Amino acid sequence: MCRELILENINTEGEQRTTFDLTVKQSLDVTLESTSQRIEVGEELQLTCVIRGFPVNSLYFTKDLKPINAFGHRVKQRAGKLFIFKVERDDQGCYQCFAVVDKDETSQAN
Asked: Where does the record place a coiled coil (predicted)?
């Protein structure tokens, strides 16, 4: 959240006005909904990454600590959700969600 903050200093010499941007950051809290599911082969899996905090520059999912290619026909990532259509046996694993504020701060949910 970025707001413009205007400071005015009025004294006997006159008025001085300074304008600058103020960025308010809130610590990230990342939760992965649907943490434990039993899905049958051929069904659809949906994982939702819930993020509280500001600002978030990017979000990504991993499976077994490896980035997920969510650009195929079977796997999609959209608006903090990971969709796996027609689950296969190879989809079994540990999924995580990562929210990135900037290059120095990342939060995760398992």
From this structure: none
